[in-house]
Amino acid sequence: MEEKSQNMHIGTINLDHRTASTKIIMEAVMELYERIMNKKLLARRINLTANNIIDEQTAIKEKPCEQMDLFTNYREKAKKRQNELTEKELQKTMIDIKKKYGKNAILKAMNLQEGGTTIDRNKQIGGHRG
């Protein structure tokens, strides 16, 4: 039986709406990390669990009801939804380009730096040289 360390930090964070936005999910993960991690310690292992996951078609069918109030800026909320749709279209376009021209068609600049491994990994089959 594994003994739990006194330095183990556990926390949760909830999103305010359903989303497939990498940006929103990463912001929430980083917010949680900053909140629970002790900056003086090194992290050996990080476990991340996502709950209540549903596919996009189910989410479209289950449009949630929302009680309107006087304190919510609905223009700002609509703008955020539009930004999510724009991000989704960008991700779809990137996937289409990679399908047509290969995984190395779109890369981050950091992948071109010395020591970058993404290009070589993309050429491998199942983690092995092809």
Q: Overview of this structure, please?
A:
By secondary structure, the protein is mainly alpha-helical. Helices cover 42% and strands 0% of the residues. It has helices at 22-36, 56-61, 74-101, 118-123. The longest helix is centred in the last third of the chain and has 28 residues, at 74-101. The protein starts with 21 loop residues before the first helix and ends in a 7-residue tail after the last helix. The mean pLDDT is 83.
Question: Concise description?
Answer:
The chain has 130 residues and is an all-alpha fold. The chain has helices at residues 22-36, 56-61, 74-101, 118-123.
Keywords:
single chain, 130 residues, mainly alpha, 4 helices, 42% helix, 0% strand
